[in-house]
Amino acid sequence: MHAISHITFMAHDLDRMKAVLCEVLGAREIYDSIERNFSLSREKFFLLNGLWIAVMEGDSRERRSYEHVAFRVNREDLAACIPKIEAMGLDILPPRPRKDGEGESLYFYDFDNHLFELHTGTLEERLACYGKLSPAEEC
Fold it and tell me: Which residues are marked as active site?
């Protein structure tokens, strides 16, 4: 394995999902299959700092869960995301308890019940906070 190739989300309304990805996360749309569909349904592709995000038109998640995708943000940019999320009418969750040093997070649900986390920390910082030295310790 090399790395994550792409992440795919199902969305009832591709344009609303585009707004979340582009206006909140800073992604940019690079493809829309509206003219020529090659997959199971209409889809849009986005790039977010080199990460390929695919969004396919389809049924939304029926229920919310804690399963989520976390995107790293700079600490100083985290607060600036809140008004963008609120302006879209998306639900922001109250913060969960955290240990000092593991970073700050903002959790919100999109229109299709996907949970996103905006997180300021790194794996190395979290492991140090939990008393581990490095990600390789357990191998």
Answer: 43
d(Cα 95, Cα 101) in Å, to the nearest integer? 15
- Which residue type, as a one-letter code, is found at position 41? S
User: For the whole model, what pTM was predicted?
Assistant: 0.87
Q: How far apart are CA 133 and CA 117, in angstroms?
A: 25
Nearest-angstrom CA–CA distance, 55 and 44: 5
Q: Over the stretch 55-77, which tens digit does the pLDDT of each residue have?
A: 999 998 899 999 999 999 998 99
Q: Could you give phi then psi for residue 120, rounded to 5 degrees? A: -95, -10
Tokens in use for 126? 């979290």
- Structure-block tokens of residue 137: 């310790």
Are residues 21 and 72 in contact, defined by beta-carbon separation less than 8 angstroms?
A: no
